[in-house]
């Protein structure tokens, strides 16, 4: 099976809540700054957050990707 990676450019997040509404098992809103956190993700040197997800989580995170007003959520298959 191919690995599916969810990518979040958190520094550009405006905290609109779209990702959390689409996939609450992968996203939460940080109470300190109001931005979205990708749960159990790893931060790269560039400040981008990355997480491998299962095929079962693709559809809900595709909704998050498609509806993020900032275009900062990417699914890489």
Task: Provide a descriptive summary of the structure in words.
The chain is of the alpha+beta class. The protein has a single domain, classed as Alpha-Beta Plaits, CATH 3.30.70.20. It contains two helices and six strands. The protein has helices at 18-22, 58-67; strands at 4-8, 27-29, 36-38, 42-43, 49-53, 73-76. The chain has a four-stranded antiparallel sheet with strand order 4-5-1-6, covered by helices on one side. A hairpin with a 6-residue loop joins strand 2 (27-29) and strand 3 (36-38). The longest helix has 10 residues, at 58-67. The mean pLDDT is 96.
Q: Any descriptors?
A:
77 residues; alpha+beta; Alpha-Beta Plaits; 4-stranded antiparallel beta sheet; two-stranded antiparallel sheet; 19% helix; 29% strand; globular
